[in-house]
Amino acid sequence: xxxxxxxxxxxxxxxxINMQSHSCDPDxxxxxxxxxxxxxxxxxxxxxGSSVDFLVSVVLPAGGTGERTGLxxxxxFCSFLGRPLISYTIQAFERVSWIQSIVVVVAKENMDxxxxxxxxxxxxxxxxxxxxxxxxxxxxxGVRALGDGEExxxxxxxxxxxVRPFVDEDLLYKIAMAAxxxxxxxxxxxxxxxxxxxxxxxxxxxxxxxxxYRASEMPQGFTYDVICQAYQKCSESDFxxxxxxxxxxxxxxxxxxxLIQGPPTLWKVTYKRDLAAAESIIKxxxxxxxxxxxGGSEQAVTLADALQxxxxxxxxxxxxxxxxxxxxxxxxxxxxNFIQVSVNRSCLSEVEAVLTxxxxxxxxxxxxxxxIWVHLSGSDELSVSGRGVEPATIMDLASAAKFRNILLxxxxxxxxxxAERWERSVLRxxxxxxxxxxxxxxxxxxxxxxx
Length: 451
Ligand SMILES: Nc1ccn([C@@H]2O[C@H](COP(=O)(O)OP(=O)(O)OP(=O)(O)O)[C@@H](O)[C@H]2O)c(=O)n1
Ligand SMILES: O=C(CO)[C@H](O)[C@H](O)COP(=O)(O)O
Hints:
The longest helix is centred in the C-terminal third of the chain and has 21 residues, at 419-439. Helix 6 packs across helix 8 (245-253). The protein is built from 15 helices and 19 strands. The protein folds into two domains: 8-282, Spore Coat Polysaccharide Biosynthesis Protein SpsA, Chain A (Alpha-Beta Complex); 287-450, Flavodoxin domain (Rossmann fold). The chain is α/β, with parallel strands linked by helices. The site of cytidine-5'-triphosphate has 22 residues, from strand 3 and helix 4.
């Protein structure tokens, strides 16, 4: 185990992950815990026509060192778009209205870091408690803490590894309901490889019939009484070497867990490559849509419509609106990406107004927002740079916005009556726009690109 005592900022920053392209899994949740947080609720919450009328709390074990990643920073504190993995997992639970509280179990030396994360990302339902030397010891500490607090004891406890950030409400609901009814429930996945037993000399002893077995994943749910009893009765050997809470419930409480097949996105971040895959999923989820603001001008609307068609082919959805007033102000709360089209205007006042609105809406706490200023200049203008915006002006504006976690980029294109040229420009605009939104590169912030 690596010994470390880094500062919170070091932990958040010393693990920049080099992104390459990763294949996208079609079976992903709509949003990996990136919705705005709802207020904590207690009971009888509606979900898809059903209700949870008992108290549910969550334990997120996050006390490990992540040795298998080979990194200094424990994987739960590795940063994605400036935010640690643990915060994504917390948010996946926090946004579920029928979950009353979340206990995050962290190693003693990371308690300050965890407090810092809770404050910085404005988590509301969370409390941190110190972990133990093994995963079972950490989970046990978390479960005990649920009985210590001032809040009412939950009927059901959901346990979920802090390093599995992509869990959706539908599965949590199924696990909670089955746990309440059955005493224990857990998510499973089909095995991807056959499991074999080896002899002590390293030869094949026997192999298991793959179709009969499943991989046990998380989340798992238990009634509070079952999980407490399981940890009270289990042996030192279970605490030291055990890897399966469902097994403890069966062995020490006679409770047969109900098993529920979950989506492939339940996978656990274990190796370094899993961190890159997680970042890719997060970025992909944030770049599915954008909102184009036209200012109502006819040329801007024509360009926005053409852009809409072109990015549609690149698998991105665009909504076109004249401004962010009235009902359209709702976009400030739901969208992560904004494209402001300015026609024949060599000043940045329109995009400045968008930045001001976004700042007022306080949307960039969890993720960086992308704002792209598209400057459509007249065909008679000899040189865009000659009469257009000074590169330094947009760079200054972008630098100020970056402090507020808003990434501002600029793209210029020129109107032309040559249909073929125009089509090529729009296509380039679509490609640049989509690349900027997908990559969210801090290095390109403030650049004025040409389409
Ligand atoms: N003493 C421990 C060990 C693990 N965990 C948590 O249990 C989850 C799943 O464990 P694993 O993937 O094995 O994490 P690590 O133990 O950190 O990884 P490694 O085995 O590679 O060191 C992680 O969220 C981890 O932080 C914990 O709370 N306390
Ligand atoms: O899947 C699980 C439980 O069924 C756990 O996530 C898994 O056992 C964790 O094990 P390890 O800490 O060794 O990776």
